[in-house]
Amino acid sequence: MFASPRTKTDVTHCLAVTACHRAKANPLNSTVTINQDPAALKPANRLVREKSPYLLQHAHNPVDWYAWGEEAFAKARTENKPIFLSIGYSTCHWCHVMERESFEDERVGAFLNEHFVSIKVDREERPDVDKIYMTFVQSTTGSGGWPLNVFLTPERKPFFGGTYFPPDERYGRGSFLSVLGEIVKVWQERHGEVTASAEEIHARLEAATSNVATPNVALTPEVLRRAGTAFKEAYDPRHGGFGGAPKFPQPSQPAFLLRYARRFADEEATRMVLHTCDRMAAGGIHDQLGGGFARYAVDAEWLVPHFEKMLYDNAQLAHLYLDAYLASADARHAEVVRDILAYVLREMTHPEGGFYSAEDADSEGHEGKFYCWTHAELAKLLSPEEFNVAARYFGITDRGNFVDHSHPAPLAGQNVLSIVNPEVTAADCPLLEAAMNKMRAVRSKRVRPHLDDKILASWNGLMLGAFARAYAVLGDESDRNAAERNVAFIQAKLWDEKAKTLYHRWREGERDDVQLLEAYAFLLDGVLHLYEATLSPGHLDFAIALADAMLAKFHDLENGGFWQSPADATELILRVKDDYDGAEPSGNSVATLALLKLAAITGRVGFREAAEATLRMFARRLEKIPQAVPCMLHALDFWLEEPRRVVIAGDPASALARELIPAAHSIYQPNKVVLGNTGAVEEFTRALPANPSPVVYLCTGHACQPPTDQPGEVRAMLQ
Predict the structure, then answer these.
(1) Which of 166, 174, 182 has its CA nearest to residue 100?
(2) How far apart are CA 535 and CA 696, in angstroms?
(3) Choosing a second label site near 238 at 20 to 30 A (CA), which of 150, 260, 419, 618?
């Protein structure tokens, strides 16, 4: 629970008890029996053979869908038909809307089947496919989003596209069937022009995505200063966050501002970030009953979320709130971290330790139905005293604060829970706690939103790092256990030790055959956090293996940077380098910082050189549009100074080491690494004098301060 501004009464204990109860009590785990989906009784198309939850959602459409692959491409070439490519993901609200309106329509299905080869792609499984065609749509229409619908030649080259198409004329857009009719007419009557245009578009896309190094751009602290100034100018002083509605957390941006504040001693920047964290945690974007955060808020106040919950958002937000806790020493930020991780363990974790991908926004066809409450419902559920406290605290009204405009019959009087009046007296604490317990119990009996239970190496890497770092900072053994189980799961299910190959998706006992930069980079980042939290040499060995494989498969030796896909991904029309840190960080940004850290730990020059080449390749982007690459700014900040190495010499499993490791992580100092003195660490560290019991050396370059075995002295040295 989170209150901002600070309350006058001492409610910290009350809120901590609530958070603790949330972590331990599992009413949301209750199962609900749901009648079989009528769609499952319809004839199946070939998507029924797939593992992607998104593709399986379309397995009973009348559309003769294909998965992305040679079978579909060959049919398009043989029959000289255009390809209709539709990309989305299983928890995408407007993807559901377009499916109900169009892809379940027999007329639409018949028309697509006669005139097109239709392909469905899960963007979360194949971000490399999505990146190519999203770049096309954004460059030709000025916007993008999902569902992404693109028309291609049989050679997979795009010639027309957009996002959501309504079933009839609305929102200034033609109906989907009329668009399909126009495409068929143009394909048949002006075929030569279409193919020529597609070739020209492809050439332009190829030129636009051929990232090369930008010479004569000096990467200095001034680049960071200008970036921080630009971010501060976008700050919303009333509600926190950066920019207006809709508001995405985009955690890499406020996390960079904390780095900027430390480097330039800018207390105002720190206050902006902490205020943003306060307002997000108090808002409806934060699930006040069940924990975790929704993907974004549709308004500027963080009040009304787009209710889907994504693993990657919650992983990055856990890191951000850990940063906020270290920078502020405010225990409320630590409570938010615990809240996020408790939610993930309870609702988003496979029994063997992998992390699921997402929860939907919709329940029973209504966005947010699972999460919202009416005034009458709560008045009936709660005692008058409980209701008065809860209604005041959460701002419950008869009118409500949310209307699902995307549904033809929206539910009336719906309230999204947010902390509107945070001042709670000591006498009100047990009443609020009792009210929330009753609300959780009732909510547990509702029909839950759909769970996308595929396990992605990329997003698991982000969450692995969050659990490992939370253990290092907050000291909860359950977080270490979750991290250790997760890395073991990934190694068993998605890592081929013999081939040194990491695959991307696992679900229901099967993995795919896809390799992606972000899988290697994000997992490398997570394993490094786990090594720094445990100092286990085996985790460092795995990190090195991932880095070596990533360099071999994705590194552009000529120009610097990393390709999103390996050279043998021949089904792609372009090989691109992801250069945008949005809701998810780019593989290039994460790889760069991870390699710099790994170079500082191991002393391997090749890791640092690859990271430096990537920074040089993106130098112009860092200088001119830093808002596009806030996560890469983290890497630049790390690179611009000699990293401090906190060396814990001795047995990392000893009781004393278990005290010294958290001390090493207890100070906000992002440009440091924590390492042991055994295993594949750099030579100077291995040569440090050994002691019968663990000691800490604080080193920069080849100079170290005298060792200590006192946690308090470690903290003092790091200050």
Answers:
(1) 166
(2) 13
(3) 260
* DSSP H helices in 603-642: 605-617, 619-624, 630-639
Mark whether 104 and 23 lie in a shared domain. Answer: no
Where in the sequence is the domain holding 650, given as residue range(s)?
Answer: 642-719
Shared domain for 29 and 44, answered yes or no, is: no
Which has the closest alpha carbon to 698: 678, 716, 679? 716
User: Which residues lie closer than 8 Å to 484 by C-beta, 6 or more apart?
Assistant: 530, 534
In a domain, 648, yes or no: yes
CA 630 to chain CA centroid, nearest Å = 14
| Residue 519 falls inside a structural domain | no
- Tell me, yes or no, whether 476 lies in a domain: no
80 SS3 class: coil
∠ at Cα 529 (630, 240), nearest 5°? 35
Clarify whether residues 129 and 92 are in a common domain.
yes
Q: Within this chain, do residues 328 and 361 fall inside the same structural domain, yes or no? A: yes
Which candidate, 660, 353, 337, places its Cα nearest to that of 484?
A: 353
Which pLDDT score, from 0 to 100, does residue 507 have?
Answer: 97
Contacts of 344 (CB under 8 A, 6+ apart): 292, 311, 314, 355, 463
What is the per-residue pLDDT for 209? 77
- Distance separating alpha carbons of residues 244 and 246, to the nearest angstrom: 6
Q: What is the C-alpha separation between 693 and 182, in angstroms, rounded?
A: 77
Helix (H, G, I), strand (E, B) or coil at 687: coil
Q: Do the domain assignments include residue 383?
A: yes
* Residue among 532, 535, 547, 529 at smallest CA distance from 677: 535
Separation between Cα atoms, residue 622 and residue 227, nearest integer Å:
8
Low-confidence stretches of the chain (pLDDT < 70) are 1-41, 171, 214
C-alpha–C-alpha distance, residues 488 and 491, integer Å: 5
